[in-house]
């Protein structure tokens, strides 16, 4: 059995229309992988904190918080 992961980042506190875009992205990924014979095993969400870039640090934002969803696929 083989496994494959695909990561999708999204920020916390996003607007409703952003959530719809992410939903469409999941749909595209799942359909693409299914066409290649992969089956979706599950989606896991990971909270991530990383250092902000120089531009944001100048404004007093030192860390960015976002979620990374990991789509896990498998095939025999």
What does this protein structure show overall?
The protein is of the alpha+beta class and 76 residues long. It has one domain (2-75). The protein has helices at 16-35, 54-58, and strands at residues 2-11, 39-51, 63-75. It has a 3-stranded antiparallel beta sheet, with helices on one face. The termini are close together. The mean pLDDT is 86.
Shape verdict? elongated
Helix-strand category: alpha+beta
Number of separate strands: 3
What percent of residues adopt helix (DSSP H or I)?
Answer: 25-40%
The value of Rg in angstroms is 16 Å
Gap from first CA to last CA: 4 Å
Give the strand order of the largest sheet, numbering strands 1, 2, ... along the chain.
Answer: 1-3-2
What is the mean pLDDT?
Answer: 86
Order of helices and strands: EHEHE
Sheet of most strands = 3 strands, antiparallel
Low-confidence stretches: none
Features:
76 residues, 3-stranded antiparallel beta sheet, 33% helix, 47% strand, elongated
């Amino acid at each position: 059995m083989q496994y494959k992961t695909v990561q999708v980042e999204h920020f916390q506190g996003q607007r409703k229309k952003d959530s719809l875009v992410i939903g469409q992205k999941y749909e595209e990924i799942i359909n693409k992988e299914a066409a290649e014979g992969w089956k979706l095993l599950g989606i896991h969400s990971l909270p991530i904190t990383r250092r902000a870039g120089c531009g944001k640090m100048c404004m007093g934002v030192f860390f960015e918080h976002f979620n990374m969803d990991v789509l896990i696929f498998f095939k025999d």
